[in-house]
Write a structure and sequence with these properties.
With 61 residues, the chain is α+β, with helices and mostly antiparallel strands. Helices cover 16% and strands 30% of the residues. The strands form two sheets. Strands 1-4 form a two-stranded antiparallel ribbon. Strands 2-3 form a two-stranded antiparallel ribbon. The radius of gyration is 10 Å and the shape is globular. Bound molecules: iron/sulfur cluster (2 copies). The site of one iron/sulfur cluster has 14 residues, from helix 1.
């Protein structure tokens, strides 16, 4: 299992990660990125590559 962890101190809310994730792992709630479907994460790291702030790391759980 994988979990994409977002560093809130770095996130600028561009929402690129929400749009790039092929598994719809992220959702926008109250103008914040939330990890809504972590069970679907396959560690493709597209979000990591897309994030301009290096705010995401994918953890193995
Ligand atoms: S791509 Fe990075 S900076 Fe943009 S919303 Fe996602 S975590 Fe935040
Ligand atoms: S690693 Fe891939 S599947 Fe997992 S949240 Fe990021 S873009 Fe989505």
């Amino acid at each position: 299992m994988y979990f994409p962890n977002i560093d809130r101190t770095k996130c600028t809310k561009c929402f690129f990660c929400v749009n790039i994730c092929p598994k719809d792992v992220f959702e926008i709630e109250n103008d914040e990125v939330e990890v809504a479907n972590s069970a679907q994460c396959n560690n493709c790291e597209a979000c990591v590559a897309e994030c301009p702030e290096d705010a995401i790391i994918v953890l193995e759980t």
